[in-house]
Amino acid sequence: MKRVLALALLILLALAMTACSDSGVTSNVAAGPPVARTLEQVRTAPDDGDFATSGPVVVENQVDVAALREGVIVDVLAEPNTHVHKGQLLARLDDRQISADLDAASAKTRSIQANLKNWQAETKVLESDLARAQKLWEAGVFTKETLEHARYKVEADKFEIDRESEMLTNAQATERSLALEKEKTRIAAPFDGIVARRYVRVGQKVGISDRLFWVTAVAPLEVKFTLPERFVGKLKNGQIVAVELADDPSAVHHTAVVTQISPVVDPSSGTIEVVAKLQGQVLDLRPGMLANIRLTNLK
Q: Which domain, by its residues, includes 210?
């Protein structure tokens, strides 16, 4: 009987320990870490109105100066890091043939102008003769045929004047065309800036559209960056943003004014493009550098 009671107590004790173990497991599961928020929950979370991004420092005027006609480079007058003004000569193509053609066209224009003046003077003489013949015919001295002959001579000279005038117009157009071609042999800076690269050398033959120089403006500087689409309508033209050189803890802090905001969202990245113009002197920034941009109060 005692053995039966002892066995019963052992069974009850084992059952009690099992219950305690199950209770502990349940408690541990309930106290586990919360499930992380989904991406959609993060996107729709309240925005604090501040945002930091980065983008390049740019200038509006920055182009490759290309050849407008084929030819051989005979002079290079600007090297990289040369500051230039709009219209300043950077290089010259061989213009001897085009200059000779232009001189010939100018001579032809002057010759036609002289012929035209001669016909105009002769026409005035014939018009005077016609007026005299008209009076003599009315007086019965000249016959009708003599009067008509004088009139036809005036009309013929007027046709010659028209012909010479058309020839002069054509010669002047040819002269202007050749002058334009000669102008194309002069490679000039399109705006104030600095020569960043030179692609040609003296004696090199170039073709139409070949790159000759890379010229970039140095001011005004701008920063170009993108913002997530959730900021659409929150950023306005004229808003101030903070700008500093990226990865430089000692960088000077600058301000920029938003001047352009893309009216559309890039569907591939879900962003809008923004351009801001830097204010004041920015001696530490150059076109092509990467800058950090901070925006505040975008709620």
A: 62-95+188-216
Whole-angstrom distance between the N-terminal and C-terminal Cα of the chain?
82
Cis peptide before 56 (omega within 30 of 0): no
- pLDDT, tens digit (0-9, with 9 covering 90-100), for 103-146: 999 999 999 999 999 999 999 999 999 999 999 988 888 888 99
For residue 213, the 8-state DSSP code is E
Q: Is position 264 within any domain?
A: yes
**Residue found by looking up tokens 């501040």 in the block:** 50
Q: How many other C-beta atoms can be found within 10 angstroms of the C-beta atom of residue 93?
A: 22
Long-range contacts of 279-284 (CB under 8 A, 24+ apart): 279/254, 279/255, 280/254, 280/255, 282/221, 282/254, 284/245, 284/251, 284/252
Residues 6+ apart with CB under 8 A from 123: 154, 157, 158, 161
